Amino acid sequence: MSPIEAQIIKRKLAVIIENLKTLEPIKSMNADEYLQDLFKRKATERLLQELIEAAVDINIHIIVETGHTVPDDYYESFIKVGELKIISLDLAQKLAPSAGLRNRLVHEYDRLEHSMVLKAVNMAEELYSRYVKEINDYISIV
Description:
Blueprint: H1 3-23, H2 31-36, H3 38-65, H4 74-83, H5 89-95, H6 98-107, H7 114-141
Helix pairs in contact: 1-3, 1-7, 3-4, 3-6, 3-7, 4-5
């Protein structure tokens, strides 16, 4: 991987890290507090959307740079990086459904279940922190 490609990935990883840090205070909110605070709800939705999109961008970038075809959708981008052993297959399978969350955040605001978004904050902390580590490990060896 060229230094330029690694820099692109690192820049996207920085978005994920920053968004995870920014989401930290949301984890301590209970459902009622979260539901009552429109600004925190909208900020949470946007931060989650951005971090998922950054990961998908990384996935697609690495998939293409390793000579493989672009996956059909965001879900498959996670599965493919797992199959290619860029990240663990277990992590890839756990992250893949977050592509569906991203789609709901972008396209279906009126049908968005706020409790699901609040739960996704904890999921993001655990899984996307692992994702950042595994991608960093990958780019350091190629």
